[in-house]
Design a protein that fits this description.
- The protein is an alpha+beta fold.
- It is globular, with a radius of gyration of 23 Å.
- The chain folds into two domains: 275 residues, Aminopeptidase (3-Layer(aba) Sandwich), CATH 3.40.630.10; 156 residues, Alpha-Beta Plaits (2-Layer Sandwich), CATH 3.30.70.
- Strand 1 and strand 2 form a beta hairpin.
- 46% of the residues are buried.
Length: 459
């Protein structure tokens, strides 16, 4: 897509919206979702040009930095008096999907049942447009003389996040550090959750995230005929190891950031809930954690353990031939107080006991824990105004985000999609029928706009 065609798409979306800002925001997200940026391969160029055209409509000139592998990364900055930038960052790529399992076209941007449907609606094109529209609103307010900028407002849209960011944020931060320098950054990692605990809605703002280990398990054995199975089988070694790893991944642990999260939520709960949380965060906590975990959804349970997911298993080539080799890949997500090096050392020892080797595919650490600052306060205030009954709490992202590249350089990075979503909707991330309710998308637009103004505009 050329920039001219991208601009035409923007005009088409504005026409579809009838001039109303909410309708325009919805129409633009529909257009964004129709740009297929499935990674691999990503093909984020048309998406970058689409965003560039929206920004240009508000007089914002964006720069596109292209990695050696041809992946675009868009950066736009509004200059304030003191620099000290607040960055809004999102990724343009999305994960693959099985279109046969969807009830709509995953790249149709369909408006149905009060929601905008499409791969990336939640992860994270919806939030990306919240960022873009907030920056446009701020630029127009500055141009009209309504406000002056005290701090820089920075927008970053990256490629390749879904494949760990080597051609996106990782490359951008390492090669164009001055262009994306900021003191605070807002991205994904947390979200508003309805019934985070029974009867308690909460905006869970991620102050850090789990580290990740992507590993390949490799085993060799004796090949043979399926009717005369040998004792030394590669497949059985892999399966036996996987069974043990599943037991290891069920071990529950209450890390300090998660303990603070549950304690904050308990303040809004009933007496029974408060008693349960006090017990879980006490020295006797390990004994009662299994009982607490049973009452939680999968996202909350993931914050109570180092998880190991088996993502691929490969072996064999014929139904009556026992193969001489087998492999599997696993995805480990580690809590902030789990040392990745020590954890990997333990896994290698367990694997060796099954005569299985481990190869590293990729490893990423959280970069530390961010402290509350001006951005945190602005988010808390804006969320309270939009949803007064919801709690605002510090949390840990169960997945990794691109913020780790900035956090490692000292930037305070927070993760929050400012929408209140059900567990069912959140489960569509990387799943089927991903969709974002219109009213929650517009809530997120309002919160993001308010936060950007509050932090960057002169008081």
């Amino acid at each position: 897509m050329t920039p001219r065609k991208a601009a035409a798409k923007v005009k088409k979306a504005e026409k579809a919206g009838g001039g109303a800002s909410d309708d325009r925001a919805v129409a633009l997200l529909q257009e964004y979702l129709r740009i297929n940026t499935t990674n691999p391969p990503g093909s984020e160029g048309p998406a970058a040009e689409f965003l560039e055209a929206i920004l240009a409509g508000s007089g914002i000139k964006a720069k596109i930095f292209t990695s050696p592998n041809g992946r675009p990364n868009l950066v736009a900055r509004l200059k304030g008096k003191k620099g000290n930038a607040l960055a809004l960052m999102h990724h343009m790529d999305v994960v693959p999907c099985d279109e046969t399992k969807w009830s709509v076209d995953p790249f149709g941007g369909e408006l149905k049942d009060g929601a905008i449907w499409g791969r990336g609606a939640i992860d994270m094109k919806g939030q990306g447009l919240m960022h873009v529209l907030a920056l446009c609103e701020l630029a127009e307010a500055v141009d009209s003389g309504e406000v002056e900028l005290e701090r820089d407002a920075l927008l970053v849209a990256v490629s390749d996040e879904e494949e760990a960011g080597a051609d996106g944020a990782g490359w951008l931060v390492s090669t164009h550090a001055d262009e994306v320098d900021c003191t605070e950054l807002l991205t994904e990692g947390g979200a508003g959750l309805r019934d985070a605990l029974p009867g308690v809605d909460a905006f869970a703002c991620a102050m850090t995230e789990k580290s990740f280990l992507w590993l390949r398990l490799l085993a060799d054995g004796e090949p043979g005929h399926g009717s005369v199975p040998p004792d030394d089988q590669a497949i059985l070694k892999i399966l036996d190891l996987i069974a043990e790893l599943r037991k290891i991944s069920r071990r529950l642990h209450m890390s300090a950031p998660v303990a603070r999260l549950f304690a904050s939520l308990a303040d809004a709960g009933d007496a029974k809930l408060k008693a349960a949380i006090r017990a879980a965060t006490s020295p006797a906590g390990p004994a009662v954690l299994p009982l607490i975990a049973k009452q939680l959804g999968s996202a909350q349970q993931a914050l109570l353990r180092d998880t190991i997911s088996i993502t691929q298993v490969q072996a064999g080539y014929k139904s009556n031939v026992i193969p001489g080799s087998a492999s599997a890949t696993i995805d480990c997500r580690l809590l902030p107080d789990t040392d990745p090096d020590s954890y990997l050392k333990k896994l290698r020892a367990v694997a060796a006991s099954h005569d299985v080797r481990i190869e590293e595919i990729d490893v990423g650490t959280s970069g530390g824990i961010s402290e509350p600052g001006e951005l945190y306060s602005a988010l808390e205030t804006a969320c309270a105004q939009e949803a007064p009954s919801a709690r605002f709490v510090q949390s840990v992202s169960p997945g990794f985000t691109d913020s780790r590249f900035w956090r490692s350089n000292g930037t305070s990075c927070l993760g929050l999609l400012p929408c209140l979503l059900t567990s069912e909707l959140l489960s569509t991330i990387h799943g089927d029928d991903e969709r974002l309710p219109v009213d929650e998308y517009l809530r997120g637009c309002r919160i993001t706009t308010q936060v950007l103004r509050s932090v960057c505009a002169a008081k």
